[in-house]
Write a structure and sequence with these properties.
With 126 residues, this protein is mainly alpha-helical. Helix content is 69%, strand content 0%. The longest helix has 40 residues.
């Protein structure tokens, strides 16, 4: 069996495997970071200090950062050896979502192109 006093050499997440106070600090830090990133995205969307064409990119970057905060602080996903299955499941889920989104856009684009050609052909009929 493993020694309970031995420190694990893998990645650790704030709040995981700690006493109640340290765990609460980890969750509070995660909440503070999530609220800060949310406020930053509202600020980016409502201010004129950010170049207007770059606002969607800035909001996307803040959203990715917030997903990272949620994964680490609340879902406890790390790259440690004991979390390999979690990381692989997350990567596979991301792949499936991207395939569905890209496939849907591809199919809708081909349908739109096909319908435009049908309407053009019908307009030339005598």
């Amino acid at each position: 069996m493993s020694d309970p006093h031995k420190k694990d050499s893998g990645d650790t997440v704030p709040g995981e495997g700690q006493d109640g106070a340290a765990s609460l600090r980890g969750y509070t830090l995660g909440l503070a970071l999530a609220l800060l990133l949310t406020a930053a995205s509202f600020w980016v969307a409502s201010t004129n200090l950010v170049w207007a064409p770059s606002v969607p990119v800035a909001i996307l970057m803040l959203a990715v950062a917030q997903m990272g905060v949620h994964l680490v602080f609340f879902l406890h996903v790390t790259t440690g050896p004991d979390n390999t299955n979690n990381v692989l499941a997350l990567a596979f889920g991301t792949l499936v979502v991207l395939l569905v989104i890209v496939g849907s856009i591809w199919i809708m684009g081909h349908l739109s192109h096909g319908m435009a050609m049908d309407h053009a052909a019908m307009g030339n009929m005598p």
